[in-house]
Fold this protein.
Amino acid sequence: MAKNLFLLPGDGIGPEAMGEVRKIIAHMNDAMGADFALDEGLVGGCAYDAHGAAISEEDMAKAMAADAVLFGAVGGPKWDDVPYEVRPEAGLLRLRKDMELFANLRPAICYPALANASSLKPELVEGLDILIIRELTGGVYFGEPKTITDLGNGQKRAIDTQVYDTYEIERISSVAFEMARTRSNRVCSMEKRNVMKSGVLWNQVVTATHKEKYSDVKLDHMLADAGGMQLVRAPKQFDVIVTDNLFGDMLSDVAAMLTGSLGMLPSASLGAPDAKTGKRKALYEPVHGSAPDIAGKGIANPIAMIASFAMCLRYSFNMVKDADNLEKAIANVLDQGIRTGDIMADGARQVGTVEMGDAILKEFVSLSV
Ligand code: NAD
């Protein structure tokens, strides 16, 4: 059966980076019998220009029906003044909401060739390979009440509500345990049970889910603030970290920066398994934005986008060998000293987006025989 991929390249460097993924897909279809069926839509500013909305209903329906969505980036100064509800980011938020993508996966991988670019000592980050799983649709960003009230005495009161139900913690911790089984089989759950009731429940539910279904996986608990310290003290101690929306937002950015440039960071957002097919809705996207400062110049780093496609192969299609080969191809190209401007180093050869994509494809082809 064809594997249906829906591409949403978006704005700025999104289409340039997506172009390099398209070449890899074409090779996999032509030479490896991969049978990807591609469709493409508009999201963000370009969708606003075409339809007056950040994503059209037709493209939303295609995203909902696809086996996986590959998303580039949205936004740019051209759309700074469009109405709030149709701003470019609204397209991404709509996709996350309608597809019920509750699990955000952010790997932090430090390629040996880039260990010197980290703000930490190279020996602390070289070979780093951790996966942060952040709950994406609940917690304090969405909890009600969410208000600012005028108290009438010259003071105002702001309220955000941190709220989690059992099922939300069960499903995100299940994703973490399942991911750990495909890696080094260790999960560290982070919360603040010492000061937050939601942390107490989080801890209890993760522990119960582990006991019931995943006792083969090693589970540790850590307070989220201590976890932040450990991430910059000794990040290689972790395999999979699972945490809530707020802590995950911060900890995943901390972990990401251990590894260097924004142009290197992929991500995946997954929904619940379908009751009939067991397939999860999924969207894969680089962490970076549309980089308007370099858009159209042919110098963007396509690695985050290509690594997002590697995650898609791994998590949506179980094409583990191909995912491994694509990630290895990226590492090999970096080892050869081929770099885009954002990760340039002394003695390396600077290339543009297309040349970087070609070099990775060439390595991928030779690793795939
Ligand atoms: P950005 O990630 O677009 O860029 C930050 C800096 O990193 C820029 O100097 C950029 O040139 C550089 N950079 C980013 N990706 C790169 C790559 N692949 N190769 C080389 N250099 C790269 O963030 P920003 O400048 O804060 O935002 C620009 C626009 O993107 C804004 O409109 C913002 O709203 C939007 N944005 C979108 C997303 C998304 O689509 N998911 C995420 C963040 C920001």
Q: What stands out?
A: Residues 1-102+271-369 form a domain with the Isopropylmalate Dehydrogenase fold (CATH 3.40.718.10). The radius of gyration is 21 Å. The mean pLDDT is 95. The pocket of nicotinamide-adenine-dinucleotide is lined by residues 13, 73-76, 89, 92, 262-263, 285, 288-294, 300-301, 304, 342 (CB under 6 Å).
